[in-house]
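Give me the fold.
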Amino acid sequence: MSRTIEYGNLMHRAMRGLIQEVLEDVRDNGLPGAHHFFITFDTNHPEAALADWLKQRYPDEMTVVMQHWYDNLDVSDQGFGITLNFGDAPENLYVPYDAIKTFVDPSVEFGLRFETQADDDDDGDDDDGGDAPKEGGDIVSLDSFRKH
């Protein structure tokens, strides 16, 4: 049996470690300068936790913004918890790193995207459930986050 190096899995683990390290720094020191984050995550992930009304409003994925106001940022090896304001209604969220689809800091034009096989499947035929990570990671286009 031949052994292979799983570069895609290693890259995803390294990218999630980078997100954890950035969030730990923000937890300890606050957001520096103009830095802010757009974080899109899978609301169907079994370990993601969000209010029922948010889950109903965002049944597949949700993008949250960490910028002007956030509270209770709790960073662990598996994910992060945070309180964010949704129309003057503070809500607690828990986002596992494995649920993150994109992590973008537009202030420095930095972005990460975690893709699955299902993202590349244009004909809708999902043979492997869409849970297998694509080999490698991609830089996310910032155009969709720019204010026009």
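The CA atoms of residues 117 and 130 lie 5 Å apart.
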